[in-house]
Amino acid sequence: MEFGQVLAEYVVGVKFESLPTKETTAAKIAILDQIGVALAGVGEGPERILGKRVAKCSSDEASILGKPQKTTTWLAALVNGTLGHSLDFDDGGGFGHPSCILVPAMLAEGEHLNRSGKQLLEAYVAGYEIGTVLSRVIFRNRHDEIHGLHSTGVFGPLTSATAAAKVMGLDSTRMRYAWGIASSQAGGLTGNFGTHTKPLHAGLASQSGVLSAELASEGFTANINALDAPLGFLYSVVAGGDLEGADFEGALKELGRGHIAETWSLKKYPCGYIAQGAIDAALRLRSETGVGFPDIDTADIRVPHLQPYFAARPTGDVAGKFSYQFPIACALLDGRVVKWSFSDEAFQRRQLQDALRKVTVTVDPDSGPRGTLVVRAAGQEFARAIEVPTGNSSRPVPLKVIEDKYLANAEPVLGLAAAKQTARMLLELEELPAVGPLVDMLAKRS
Asked: Distances from the Cα of 368 to the Cαs of 144, 332, 365, 383, 430, in angstroms?
């Protein structure tokens, strides 16, 4: 059977009742976290600018989180996807940032078509599985993005198309057409990290998936074998013209194995994932030694490898989220790294500017698997290994930590009562016969 047909038949066959409880539980947690970080993005630069454009395109199809207005399904996915990635506070998974592309797509179609919570969970699981399989066909070095392309933008259009098509109930043939249409929209440059365009990658990917599924539902055609065709998605976009080493059979063996619980990772801090473990190390060192600025003479972040896009000039805005120095300086100075840490107010503090001058990054192949933070203060040297960050799938946090993160992100937009009620609804998503009332609350219409 053709590769694409196997995937399409899997998606069509996903039923809530047959999904493992641990997988649907993980999906609900991921959805809760994603909606929270999207609400936290309301009022940020990407939302303000993009929102002005979308406000000119009113419709009654789907909602923008935190705003009473409605627009088309695909524009709602565009804005909500961008919102969800604006702070770089969203989750990680096997193929980039899964939820900022899946959740806006399934939410837009779910609201428009009055679907149930179970149907949304089916769509999330199906999209996550397709993204996992596609990302495992071709080995990618863990140190490299796909020849300069952002994996969220690469796999996002196909996975969001999966989620949207599942909610819409497309058959396997139209599912494959949707993937073909979405394949031509895959991309996103890592060279744009540290700017408003990085979160736009997620918005465009989610929008592309919704638009692709809707076009396919109306008979719009594409190469039905676009995933693995000689000039198709995997060959052209992922492999860069070289399919040597591609393992289609091995990837298909992963299909339906339940990867959310195995690979989903929470972010504790609103910045690039690469720095999360280093922030943990800085906070641990500060707590255990009592050392802080101005006692510190130098703080050196020694890492075995430094991604080019993570060498951004330390500033307090979006670029600060892609700098080792900035969040580590905040952690050592303030004992925390939060949304406010990246504000102009926080960045312009003289204390922080002094702290930044003391923090350096050194590429050292002998620094350990993930690196080491070395701080010199008062004639002493303190070192802490950079470990797998808390919140990673291998170091999960209690549900209460995730709920508290949601409430902290949602309360400023929705109010405490609505934040608590929507949290309950999201954690009991399978109980909702229709998602309209939930979306109304998230859009501040009730």
From this structure: 19, 21, 7, 12, 44
pLDDT of res. 103: 98
How far is Cα 322 from Cα 398, in angstroms, rounded to an integer?
Answer: 27
* CATH topology match: 3-267+395-442 vs 273-385: no
Architecture in CATH for domain 3-267+395-442: Orthogonal Bundle (1.10)
- Per-residue pLDDT tens over the stretch 127-158: 999 999 999 998 765 445 567 899 999 999 99
pLDDT per residue as tens digits for the range 70-109: 999 999 999 999 999 999 999 999 899 999 999 999 999 9
Four-residue CA torsion sign, 337, 289, 277, 189:
positive
- From CA 338, how far away is CA 345, in angstroms rounded? 13
- For the domain spanning 273-385, the CATH number is 3.30.1330.120
User: Quick one: pLDDT at residue 307?
Assistant: 87
Residue 142 pLDDT = 46
